[in-house]
Amino acid sequence: MKKMMKRIAAIALMACMVLTMVPYASAASENTLTVKVTDRVLNKIVTMKNDTGLGDTAKLIESIFDIIGAETMGDGLSNAYKTAHRNHIAQGKSSSDPVCTPEKCGLYSIWTVELDDWFDDAKAAYLGGTWSSWISSDVDDGLFSGSSNGDLKEYLEDSTTPISKLTLKKEYTMTSANSRYVFSVTRTKPTGGGGGSVSNTTTETVKNEDGSVTTIITDKKTGTVTEITTGTNGVTATTVTDKNGNSSATEVVVPAGATEPVTLPLPIKDKDELNIDVPDGETKVVIPVKEDSTGNVVVIVHSDGTEEVVKGTTMTDGGVVVTLDKDATVKVVDKSKEFVDMDGHWANNAVDYVAARGLFAGTGDGTTFSPEVPMTRGMLAQVIYNLEGAEKHTYVHGFTDIPAGQWYTAAVNWAAREDVVAGYGDGSYKPNKILSREEFAQILYNYAKALGYDVNVSADLSTFADGDEVSWWATAAMQWAVGTGLMSGKGGNILGATHTATRAEGAQLFMNFMEKIIKH
């Protein structure tokens, strides 16, 4: 049903695209298009008129949403609007019995979510040169079969047909198979048009260094510049800039089936925010950045303006990697912190990394990191709890030395519940006990298993001068830590399994864990 509704909602849009996007280079200003959608069940008619010159699809789409009561969104709908609509539908008893049916909610329920998705798909197909095959596979399926559909369907299928081929004032129609929807397109001359032939738009195409192609469309009448960049992987990024140089948030669309991680095309505009639309399910996205920094993180901007750091942000050359499970408005921010005791320290980058993500906090008044202070069992549980973004809970493990209300209480109880940490035979946890490097490795090993990662990687510890000093219970964890590159020697071919793990070492181990285990 959802697929059929997408097809229904898209036909008026596709007519607009064939009759507005295709003739960018040769459009004549006397061509004004009117697209009408009639809903015979609701007895409603939506009329959209393009009277600003061909190729101005964004304004045409805006008029659609104006007429049906939504926000003016340019060439796409805001994530907040999509979420609100989906939540409304989810209130129904089941997917087959939603609260918001077309009969109850009208055209809004069909267009607000579906049209935006179809616009992005259609735009990608057109810019990618696959328009004809897309039309054939997504329109010619019997949904709009019938003798009344001959003329308009022919124009849809032949994307090279110029606007001037349409007979003036003739209404070209298509009727849905269920006879509910009638779509029509009419070509007229604007008042006082005089049959001129000067286009209001200019189009420039630029190939970028990463293989992506940017189409720059300039509206000479309004001064608006639309830049559409399409990557070799089908991802599109669209930015609209007005005559005063004010840019809209860049709209990024990730197509279904894209090979992960999905790298966004260059150039991503130098802007604060990106509105990223992703397919259903988790999608790993690479966002290009101008300057690499271990403090670069992805921040989600919620509809109410609040911001949330994505603690699982990882790095790649020239970009940051983030996993999104739904559409989101995001920005990349360098949240590196200036600790007075880290200048020139070997772990400075790692400390920037973990502090920017909110995994480690400063010490004292927050201006110091105390890199040589030992890690404790309570600290490590708290860091993992921070990374996990674990939910508030009332679980109590029953450790004899974990009273309520301590800074580590929730973290230790949660980690014990998830089998990340364990206590001692006397029922204690010992939150203030200093960690050795092998204990640190064992807890990370447990955490990796809890996340479902393969922990069968193994290294030969006998290559280290003190490899035989590893405790029997930590052997598998240390072999895994060395084999995956999380842990290396300390100089002089010493592994130092029983040595104290400092906060600096903890920061480095966590950065290694995120980049070598979580990222992949």
Quick take:
The chain is α+β, with helices and mostly antiparallel strands. Helix content is 29%, strand content 18%.
Folded structure, characterized:
The model is unreliable at 1-30, 50-119, 138-149 and 190-198 (pLDDT under 50). The chain is an alpha+beta fold and 520 residues long. The strands form three sheets. Strands 5-6-7-8-9-11-17-13-14 form a nine-stranded mixed sheet, covered by helices on one side. Strands 2-1-4-3 form a four-stranded antiparallel sheet. The longest helix is centred in the first third of the chain and has 21 residues, at 107-127. It has helices spanning 2-20, 57-67, 79-90, 102-105, 107-127, 131-138, 150-157, 348-356, 377-388, 409-417, 437-451, 475-483, 503-518; strands spanning 32-39, 44-50, 171-175, 181-188, 201-207, 213-219, 225-230, 236-241, 250-253, 262-263, 274-277, 283-288, 296-301, 307-309, 314-316, 319-324, 328-334. The chain has 13 helices and 17 strands.
